[in-house]
Amino acid sequence: MSTGVWIADTGRMPELPEVESLAAFLRERAVGHAIARVDVLAISALKTYDPPITALGGLTVTAVARHGKFLDLDADGLHFVVHLARAGWLRWRDELPARAGRPGGRNPLAVRVHLDDGSGFDLTEAGTKKGLAVYVVRDPAEVPGVATLGPDPLADDFTPEALAAILKDRRTQIKGVLRDQKIVAGIGNAYSDEVLHAAKMSPFKVAATLTDDDIATLHTAIRTTLAEAVTRAEGVAAQDLKGEKKSGLRVHGRTGQECPVCGDTIREVSFADSSLQYCPTCQTGGKPLADRRMSRLLK
Hints:
By secondary structure, this protein is α+β, with helices and mostly antiparallel strands. The chain has helices at residues 16-29, 144-147, 160-167, 174-179, 189-198, 212-233, 241-248, 280-283, 292-298; strands spanning 35-40, 61-67, 70-75, 78-83, 88-93, 109-115, 120-125, 133-137, 267-270, 275-278. The protein folds into two domains: 16-147, Alpha-Beta Barrel (N-terminal domain of MutM-like DNA repair proteins); 160-298, Orthogonal Bundle (Helicase, Ruva Protein, domain 3), CATH 1.10.8.50.
């Protein structure tokens, strides 16, 4: 039986917990198997040419790792690195069709990876904005996005002191700091909303103004929120990951609903290509934040 693995739906980029769950899923199923071949149907997804992707044929998957939001399959020293972008999907199949897949459809197939036992996975991407990226490299640090990643927030050395050093002198809003992969790796739009709600902190608070107590609270919120999301996904059937992520979110994507902590109405601030959600009572002293996009539309 084939098993569908959800990783992201349109407009919701997979973040650290989802990529970590996917890495664990592939460790169980792909490690120890040789790659029979890789079919590339969307050449735009392939970002490297040396080594060629055909070099993966016959190599054995020895490990699966995560770097921020990047997935890394180590095949005898060559690394197949994937970034799923906003609308990427990964679908595992216990039995892949022997023939090459065909592009097109609602979720066009971009890359298909065949393993030696007939199993494998498809990488697909919905929508017209194509961001799915696949790299074949000798060292993950050769991938530009990996090379510039900030510290991993679940690593042992991500301490309150390390966070304080990151935030020092940054005159930018904390929401943007958390989302910047060069500052902290793996947190995106959804989990930055969740972290700031847990920390009872306004997304517009300037990073450099955080006190030592604020930083300690934020550090705890980051570690706890991400660790809990990873734990919730453990043992969950792969096809249920999407529902598990959505059910675990308290404010993100829940505009107009009640805050599960205080009962206030969750509000939204819209931007050109994204939005944030927050609770006024929990995070901004009861004061709604100005939705600048809506303000411009009303002028």
